[in-house]
Amino acid sequence: MVQGTASGVGKSVLATALCRVLHEDGFRVAPFKAQNMSLNAAVTDEGGEIGRAQAVQAHAAGVRPLVAMNPILLKPEADNRSQLVILGKASGGYATQGYWRRGNTLWPIVRAALDQLRREFEIVVIEGAGSPAELNLRRVDIANMRVAAEADASVILVGDIERGGIFAQLLGTLDLLAELERARVRALVVNKFRGDASLFDDGVRILRERTNLPVYVLPFVDDLGVPSEDGLAAENPLASPLGPEIAVIAYPHVSNHDDLEPLAAAGARICYVRQARELDRSDLIVLPGSKTTVADLAWLRHRGLADRIRTLAHGGTPVLGVCGGFQMLGRELRDAAGVDGSVGAVPGLNLLPVHTAFNGHKRTALVQVRVLTGGFLVGADDVAFDAYEIHVGRTRRDAGLRPFAELTAYGSARSRFDGAVSADGLVIGTYAHGLFADQRMRNALLTSLAQRSGRVFVPRDLPHDPYARVSRWLRGSIDVADLLARCGVTHESSRPSLARAEMAR
After folding, report:
1. What is the DSSP string of 245-285?
2. pLDDT for the residue numbered 159
3. Is residue 239 domain-resident?
4. Which of its termini does the chain have fewer beta carbons within 10 Å around, N or C?
5. Rg for the chain (alpha carbons), in Å?
């Protein structure tokens, strides 16, 4: 189990790397996170919703994502309220106090999901949530040491040296653990070290002497090719000076913004925008998904962004809306039952003649997409790719408006139209998430934007295997075999694989 001294110290990346390394070593591996809080979600084959990080870890492990890998997902709707997703299905909204009162009733679901994975896989790589040393939350914790005890798991404790106070992080966390919990910790990881690691040799010695635990130092790397679990990247180290500048509206409850990460990796300059003046030099404006579409639309208006987006769109700047962003581009958003958070109807940005009505049904599905009208995405017509949907609400196009694509849900023989494209082709809306993971779609967008601005830009090709780099990073930085052995994982001592066990029987 990978636990951390806080959120954002690198638990997800290390868990992803371990999943990949163990997969490369021939183990059948599954990731697990009992409870995740994130607005970046993914869809499983069975149509369930889980945290993006666990889907990424499953792909790194060479297995398909399952709802059991993240049985409890919290999707914040406000500072004190979240939507609760249980085993892939939305289960209503809860205020923070109400959720904590219910927390322990969710433990049997967590335990059953963990048991399922332990039956089906040789190794489960478990990721904790936040810190295991939050004393005020220990009685309702269902994601850290309670999970470790249930699985009898060895714990790797990760701290982030870039934040400063690495000794306080690691030693303080260990000091606040109960004796039996402390005994589960088998190794310390100092993450995000910049420069010559030998400069921290004294630090390693001090930590070893005070804890009697091995210490591993992982270097800071700009981009490991692992999509972010949550939060917006502050900078893009892979941006090309000739790359198109893409302004992504960073409203308070932006969701699934990882749709844009393949563009950043290909060399685009991604700018997360909260002020109207930041839009003016953009080659493209993107309205990404939103967990609270109507509230985030009100935020756009309050910030002056709505008026500026309309002005720039009418002046020829392309605009792309995905999911909630697509809904905002329409003429009206109507919510008769308060499904999105408030009852009534509000005007949209009126850049597409579409109307959205919210209902209680949340659509989560893997889909095959075929582009019908590429608009400003020159060369995208008839491109087909895999994507997914996560949204509440149905959007109706006015007569004569061209759809963006044709969608076919996996396992279905019936297709339906998706999205909309303005008459001049400069405004596109779609419900399809993940459209720029496809190289043809990515290249169509980036080359089209570059040509519109008179630049010559060749998008960078993304690696065929996006997880090879994170594996090389881990193997090249520490003695992975030693770390795993200290956690009881060796090829000789691990239990037989399912295939070997079946042969033995």
Report:
1. EEEEE--TTEE-GGGGHHHHHTT-EEEEE-SGGGGTT-SEE
2. 96
3. no
4. C
5. 23
> Given a cut of 50, is residue 500 above it in pLDDT?
no
210 and 333 belong to one structural domain: no
Residue type for 115, please? D
> Could you tell me the pLDDT band of residue 435, with boundaries at 50, 70 and 90?
very high
Question: Is residue 179 located within the same domain as residue 275?
Answer: no
Domain count, the chain: 2
pLDDT for 341 equals 65
Residue 143 to residue 127: CA distance in whole angstroms: 8
Are the C-beta atoms of residues 389 and 363 closer than 8 Å to each other? yes
Q: Per-residue pLDDT tens for 178-233?
A: 999 999 999 999 999 998 989 999 999 999 999 999 999 999 987 776 766 555 55
Domain holding 205, by residue range, is 2-225+466-504
Are 151 and 118 within 8 A, CB to CB? yes
Same domain for 184 and 135:
yes
10 Å Cβ neighbour count for 222?
A: 8
Active site members:
323, 433
Burial 75-91 (b: 16+ CB within 10 A, else e): bbbeeebbbbbbbbebe
